[in-house]
Specification:
single chain; mainly beta; five-stranded mixed beta sheet; 1 helix; 25% strand; globular
C-alpha cells in the first residue's frame, strides 16, 4: 500500500507518518487538505513540476517547520499552511527575516509585518491569500507585470494603504483582497 493517494498527477491525500515524506515525482498539484492534520510531518520539499497547492493542503500539520518549493509553483490556496509552525513563524516573527518577503516558487507567500512600502519582485506570478493582511504600516505597493493573480484577503486590513498599482495583466483578484 502506498502512502499517497493520487488522481492522475494530483496528490489527493497523504496517509503516511514519515516526518520527511518524499513526494512522488510527476505530480503537478497538491489537493485541498491533502496533508491536513498530518502531525508527524516536520519538513516538506515540494518537487519540481508542482504548480499549485490547494486550500488547507498542510493545515494543522503541528510539526511542519520547513517548506521548500520549486520555481514551478505558481499558486497557493487559502490557509494552505495555517496552524503550522512554518506559518506562525512567517506570520508573526520578523526579526530573523533577511528580506521583506517570503517567496515560495513564484508565489509571494508572506510580507514582513512592519513593511511600509512593497516593491514586489519581478518574476512573482501570484500573491498568496493573506500575504499582506494586517500590515497596518503598509502605505504603498508596486506590483510587477509578471503578477497574474492576487489571493483572497491578500491586502485586507492594511489601514494605511493609499497607493497600489495593479498591472493590466492581473486576471484574478480574490475575495476581500482589499
Amino acid at each position: 500500500m502506498t502512502d499517497f493517494e493520487l488522481e492522475g498527477t494530483k496528490l489527493i491525500r497523504y496517509r503516511g507518518s514519515a516526518p520527511w515524506p518524499e513526494l512522488p515525482a510527476g505530480i503537478t498539484e497538491i489537493a485541498e487538505g491533502a496533508f491536513r492534520d498530518c502531525r508527524d510531518v516536520c519538513e516538506i520539499a515540494i518537487p519540481e513540476g508542482v504548480a499549485r497547492i490547494g486550500a488547507e493542503a498542510f493545515q494543522w500539520c503541528a510539526n511542519l517547520e520547513r517548506v521548500t518549493a520549486p520555481e514551478s509553483l505558481a499558486e497557493i490556496g487559502p490557509d494552505a499552511f495555517s496552524g503550522t509552525p512554518f506559518y506562525r513563524y512567517y506570520d508573526t516573527n520578523e526579526t530573523d527575516w533577511k528580506e521583506d518577503f517570503l517567496v515560495l516558487g513564484r508565489v509571494l507567500f508572506k510580507a514582513r509585518r512592519n513593511i511600509r512600502r512593497a516593491d514586489i519582485p519581478e518574476g512573482v506570478v501570484s500573491i498568496a491569500p493573506d500575504a499582506f493582511a494586517g500590515r497596518v504600516l503598509l502605505a504603498e505597493v508596486k506590483i510587477p507585470d509578471s503578477v497574474r493573480g492576487i489571493g483572497w484577503r491578500a491586502f485586507s486590513d492594511c489601514s494605511a494603504l493609499t497607493r497600489i498599482d495593479i498591472p493590466s495583466g492581473v486576471r484574478r483578484i480574490g475575495w476581500h483582497s482589499f
